Amino acid sequence: MSAPTFPSGSVLGYPRIGPRRELKKAVESFWAGRTTADELEATASALRVAAAKRLVDLGLDAASGAVPGSFSYYDQVLDVVALLGAVPSRFASLTDADGALDLAGYFTVARGAGEDAPLEMTKWFDTNYHYLVPEISESTPFRFADDRVVRQFVEAKDAGVVTRPVVVGPVTFLALSKAADDSAPGFSPLSRLADVLPVYVELLRALAAAGAPWVQLDEPALVSDSIDVPAAEVHAAVTEAYRVLATELAVGSERPAILVGAPFGGLQGEHDGLALLAATDVEAISLDLVKGAVPAGPVPGLADKTLVAGVIDGHNVWRADLAAKLDLVEGLSDLGAGTVTVGTSTSLLHVPHDVEDEDWTNGSIDARLRDWLAFADQKVGEVAVLAQALTEGPEAVADQIEASRAAVASRAVASGVVVPAVRERAAALTEGDFSRGDYAERAAAQQAKLNLPLLPTTTIGSFPQTPEIRRARALNVKGELSDADYTAAMQDEIRRVVELQEQIGLDVLVHGEPERNDMVQYFAENLDGFAVTANGWVQSYGSRCVRPPILWGDVTRPAPITVDWSTFTASLTEKPVKGMLTGPVTILAWSFVRDDQPLGDTANQVGLALRDEIADLEAAGIGIIQVDEPALRELLPLRKADQAAYLDWSVSSFRLATAGVVAETQIHTHLCYSEFGEVIGAIDGLDADVTSVEAARSRMEIVPELAEAGYARGIGPGVYDIHSPRVPSTEEVTDLLELAVKSIDSRLVWVNPDCGLKTRRYEETVASLENLVAATNAVRAQLG
């Protein structure tokens, strides 16, 4: 049976949270016990069907598999854990006789319960999305335990839309997995490929029986040579996987046609991923032509395949120049593909739903941006226009092509995009602007000033954002609560947080950040060159959603941002108080950044604005200043050849922000959500006096790596995983802290949670911090 025709225009995925975060609200209601599993299923079903129909309305074909079925309740990698029944042994009691998880069990694996820690969380390639890391051992069972993908296809089909189910491919799933604790030394999860493939075979057979013409298997492991598995092993596994899934199964009768997605980079490298896939019997291959270049051709094996040209950026929000994108698609003609169609570079999971969801009339967001932006729905429209241009000729969509060109041109010359004073200041920087004095001298001066005990205790910055805080902020935004009354309400909360920290016995205090809606958005609202949306929500992990600001112009700081809050806090206590800032790399990583100049130039502009803020904090008497860089690892290029240049400018921008302080001022930074091994040199290069890192879920995995690398400044490996609602016991925290001081000089070790406490509730926060302090006292006693 011949393969079905791939649609002329498609997208690799679509936002799944709902235009107004309906899924987030429904999931959290289920967690709180206010709704049942059946009610959650009904809400999710309605969202899925509505999204499928919306994509058809935007121009995708309803009958050809153009519409992706890319839904997840929490995480697409966790979905494959459920599909395979690959549940860690500590959660085995949650599965039924067939290895299946119900919704409550699924969420427990994600979030943990009691003494059972959840799956570790880390970044999904170079995005701000976080996935749950599967734990695989030699004995992990694999079976077709969850047919949810099939049922969701049937659901959409019954509603009149033939979707294309989207599943993380078997090689990427295993390549991103970690060896479970009970694995033998040297075990690689990828060695279980032969055991996983029969489950994928069953899935494909079930989808074919249900009538699915296409399935999308995402294999982004092919574009990276910086994951733990060597590229040669990944490529050998891909060859074997698609021999079993494509060659040994008859398309149509035994399986749908297969589209392999390879987002987040180019398929070229030491091992040519495009040639590798072309040599298999898959029917279509998607190329990311935003992060990756047009490959050289011709490529043997493409003549009977469809190439999906991912020319519309799924990772950023700028409107495309459609004429330029058409030229890019035409550049694929030399590759020798049977058919070329148009798509997005990545799933649209990484951008908000709809530009038109913003109020462009009330002055809250610069109205000029309306023409410059393309969110998910607009990007679907761009794909549809390009698809029409391919099938009917550019003249059929000449007006749309010209409108896109005019929008791009107007953005380039708009006021504020270039600010001469900013450019002149950056051009005048010298090497001295990026350097501080000797660390040993700084450490002695800081200890003399601060007089901190062994194993100082602190938190990362934020405390729980209560409904009262959120209500006050909302009323202030609406104009129903005056600025003075809002400030008074936030000061009352700061008093409460300071008193609580003193009662718990923490050594270095924070103000809790009640005035901040988000650690990046707050600064974007106070820096020129940024715009902030009202409804531009993007999923970060699970039910956690953020509104990334839009960095569209040169960056300046019109006035101090945090000084008043920090000095007010310092007036309430005799203990040291940390000033809290977000670093330049994280501000870039968690914003939608301008694409018209090098990222390093933009980072230095933000660094200069923060340098001014740090100078004002220091002048106001704040002796400890934390500049958070949780996203340092996130932006690391996936190809090793590109990493040195990135690390150079990212580290430099942090040092530019922090190098202006005197020796007595202690600079902290914080990193989380990442595997840190490959950026340890950069962590050292930041030259912070104290670095706190996520370490609880990985059980101090980074600490021996730091010791081996010769790291010799303050380090705060997290001992409390704040991404789970569970309260770690004193014994658990003691155990983690003991692991830390075995590898690192105890005089350098700080004690802190993994991350900020904004998303936690006070009851679990207080209990956890009390256990943290008790564990610290126990280890101090051991150390004498």
The N- and C-terminal alpha carbons lie at a distance of: 76 Å
- Overall residue-averaged pLDDT value: 94
Number of β-strand runs: 21
Overall morphology:
globular
User: How much of the residues is beta strand, in percent?
Assistant: 5-15%
Largest sheet: 7 strands, parallel
* Low-confidence parts: none
Structure class: alpha/beta
Tell me the radius of gyration.
Answer: 26 Å
What share of residues is helical? 25-40%
Q: Please count the helical segments.
A: 26
Sequence of strands across the biggest β-sheet: 1-5-7-8-9-10-11
Describe this structure in words.
- The protein is an alpha/beta fold and 784 residues long.
- 40% of the residues lie in helices and 12% in strands.
- A seven-stranded parallel β-sheet has the order 1-5-7-8-9-10-11.
- Strand 10, helix 10 and strand 11 form a beta-alpha-beta unit.
- The mean pLDDT is 94.
What is shown here, in short?
This protein is of the alpha/beta class. Helices cover 40% and strands 12% of the residues.
Task: Chart the SSEs and their pairings.
Elements: H1 22-31, H2 37-57, E1 67-69, H3 76-84, H4 103-111, E2 121-123, E3 130-132, E4 135-136, H5 148-158, E5 163-168, H6 170-175, E6 178-179, H7 193-210, E7 214-218, H8 231-247, E8 257-262, H9 273-278, E9 284-288, E10 306-312, H10 322-330, E11 339-344, H11 369-372, H12 376-392, H13 398-412, H14 420-427, H15 439-450, H16 467-478, H17 483-504, H18 521-524, E12 528-531, E13 538-541, E14 544-546, E15 550-556, H19 563-570, E16 578-582, H20 584-589, E17 592-593, H21 599-619, E18 624-628, H22 643-658, E19 666-671, H23 680-685, E20 690-693, H24 702-708, E21 714-717, H25 730-743, H26 762-783
Parallel strand pairs: 1-5, 4-6, 5-7, 7-8, 8-9, 9-10, 10-11, 15-17, 16-18, 18-19, 19-20, 20-21
Antiparallel strand pairs: 2-3, 12-15, 13-14
